[in-house]
Every structure is written in structure tokens, then in C-alpha cells.
Amino acid sequence: xxxxxxxxxxxxxxxxxxxxxxxxxxxxxxxxxxxxxxxxxxxxxxxxxxxxxxxxxxxxxxxxxxxxxxxxxxxxxxxxxxxxxxxxxxxxxxxxxxxxxxxxxxxxxxxxxxxxxxxxxxxxxxxxxxxxxxxxxxxxxxxxxxxxxxxxxxxxxxxxxxxxxxxxxxxxxxxxxxxxxxxxxxxxxxxxxxxxxxxxxxxxxxxxxxxxxxxxxxxxxxxxxxxxxxxxxxxxxxxxxxxxxxxxxxxxxxxxxxxxxxxxxxxxxxxxxxxxxxxxxxxxxxxxxxxxxxxxxxxxxxxxxxxxxxxxxxxxxxxxxxxxxxxxxxxxxxxxxxxxxxxxxxxxxxxxxxxxxxxxxxxxxxxxxxxxxxxxxxxxxxxxxxxxxxxxxxxxxxxxxxxxxxxxxxxxxxxxxxxxxxxxxxxxxxxxxxxxxxxxxxxxxxxxxxxxxxxxxxxxxxxxxxxxxxxxxxxxxxxxxxxxxxxxxxx
Length: 491
What we know:
There is one protein chain. The protein is mainly beta. It has two domains: 49-125, no CATH class; 139-489, no CATH class. Helix content is 8%, strand content 45%. It contains three helices and 16 strands. It has a ten-stranded antiparallel barrel with strand order 1-6-7-9-10-11-12-13-14-16. The radius of gyration is 37 Å and the shape is elongated. It starts with 5 loop residues before the first helix and ends with a strand. The relative contact order is 0.11.
């Protein structure tokens, strides 16, 4: 018999070793925990290996990853993972599903440990400080972008209902040509007819304030004890503005001041028979709050939250302006111009107490979702300033003030992604609602019929007619919603 060389013997030995290893591996995978179906199995129940939790299979589910598992869920107790499941088990022998392979889940229940996503993300993967790490940051800075939805309902009109004497509101600022004059009731049993504008040339609704505007948000935390801190927050600098204008070479624009050229007939020299009518609207707000926040951690540390109580100051400022340009000889010669400018500015100062809280869930270490709700009842010190400058009125000024209870509520849904130990990025959706505030258009008062000397009957009304009927409307509401994005820093 021919003798085998040393290299041949080495090849045969390696083949036997691989075969033996493969046989042993198949035998190990064939084992399963002792059940009624396999009473002779030698895999006795006992404590899970170090670093691995024990789970119990309790039926079939569709997408769950907890006790109820199925073709799309994780399977525990030595079973393989479903299509999306992690395949966690207590003996390291099961195979992960697609979800487990992407996240790096293995049979020994380690969460993120070299999965496909982990390898792709590399240094961009979230900073893993444990799924139960407490929610905390020292300072936050970012942008807060809001779209404004307001409930202004038009301006006050100069005309009154004959039967009740109540002033009407209107959306039409100016019309092309004179409108239809008011007709008083012929007798006590017949209602009268109020004035109607001609073809509308300019409306309040021509102004578009529902635009996205960016502002600033700053938050600072001062720890006062275990799980307790004082939170100081500011946001604002969001500003909305829009302008609408109409121009007529025929100089036939009639305004609401004269009930569209019907009272007096032909309108006023300053506001009517104009070639240009313009309206503009500006709105902005600022918010500041100081709160005491107490944090808590649930039995499952992945769920955390807090409650808070504090004080808030919210200021809403608006300006609604109307201007008219006419001419003594119906041409645009600037040495012969007639003009009228009226600015109505409203200020709302809300001060009061607020309460609220938030709830966070840590999806995986470094990635969390949260929601927060805050609200309160506030005292709104509202005031309106009206200034008129025109050919006939050198300067007229009016100031009114009123206190009223207002309501404010704020809601947000947020997500955080922790980059490093110190830095975390945060984004979310925000909603802010304020009720019982004074808005610019609703407090625009066109009831002007001339001028009186300074220091008239009402010390707060200078330069207006003695029979002027001033008012302050503090019944409107405004809604802001949009998104926020910024970064948190922890020392």
C-alpha cells in the first residue's frame, strides 16, 4: 500500500475535524427546552445566562415584539425571529429576523451590536447611554417657526341699524364708486335698509397673514435638587406683515369712513374720491416663562416624564393701518395731493400662572419621543392706540385700555437624537392657542366726522370729534402652529 505524504494526512485530518464540528453544531441546534412534546430533552429550565433576560412565549401576534409574537414579531425562548423580529432568546441559539439583523440584535439579546444599520451609520449612530438614562439638558437653542391663523372678523363700520342703533361690521374697506345710501324705515313696523358698498375694491381678507415665520427659542435649566429644576424659557421674534393696495386713475375710490360715499354724499376730501387706497397689517409676539419642573421615572425606565408649575408672560402686538391718496384736481401732481393716514395699534399683555407636564419614551438608547402640554388662565391688559394724520386733521390721538381674563394653551410633540454625551438635536411640532385678545383689524374704528381742538371732552381722545364712539374689542382668538428645530447641550 502506498504511503500517504504528510500533506495528505493533514488534509484528511482537517476534513474530519470540520465534519465533527458540523455534526455537533446541528445537534446543538436541534435541542429545545423541555416541554410536553419533548419530555426527554436534557435542556432543563433555569436562570438565563449572565447579561440576558428570560422571556416567555405566549401565543401568536402579528407585529408585536413582546409576549405575543408571530410571523412579523420577535420570538423568544429559543425560537427564531420573525420577518421583522429581533429573535431574542435566553440561550443564544436562535436566529434574528430582518429587524434583528438591521439593528444588530443577536440571540444573546444585545440590542445594537454590529448590525447592518449600525455599520452603515457608523459615527452618526445615537450615543448609547442606556435605555433608562434620565432626560436632562442644561441649555437649548433653536428656531420656532409658526403659521398664524387668526379669527379677526372685519372692521367696525360707521353705520348703525336703524331699529337697534347697533354698529355693523364689514369686510369692505373701499369700493369703486359710491354705494347705495341707507334708507330709514318709513314707519315703526318696517325695517330700514343700511348702506351698501359699490363693487369692492379692497377688503380686509385681501391680507394674507397665514405665512410661516421663523423665530427664536431659548431654554435654560438650573438644577435645584434630585429630579427637580427651575426652567427659564423664551421664544418670539416671529413677525407677520402684509400689504394690499388698489389704484384708480379715475379717482373714484370711496371708503368705509363715509359709508362708501353715501354719508356725506360724495364722501370726505381726505378719505374719498381717492386714487390710491392701501391697508397693511403687522403682528408679532414675545413669550417668557419661569417654571419649577419635577421629573419622574416609571417602573420601566424607558418611560419618563415631569410635571411643572410656574408663571408666564405673553405679549401680542399688532398694527392695522389705512391710507388714502387723492388730489384736489384729480391728478397725481404731488403739490396738489390730499392724504389720510390712520394707524391702529393693539397691545395684549398676558400675565398668569401655568401648569403642565410632559411624557417621554426612550425607543432605543439615544433616541426618544416626547409630548408636552401646558396651559393657564391669564389677565390680559389690552389697550388700543389710534393715530390719524391728514389734510383736515393735523394729528388726532386716542388711547383705550381694558383688563380681561384670557386663556392660553401650548402643545408640542418632539423627538430627540443624542449625538454625543453633551450634544442632542431636537425637532418637533408645536401648537399655541390664545383666546380673548385684541387684534388690529377688529379695533380699527372709522367713525370720524371732523376734528376738535386738543383737550376735548375725553382726555384720552385728542383731535377727534366730540361725538366719536370709541371701542376696544378683546374677544378675538389666534392660533399658531408649526415646527421647531434646535440643539441641547449638557455640561
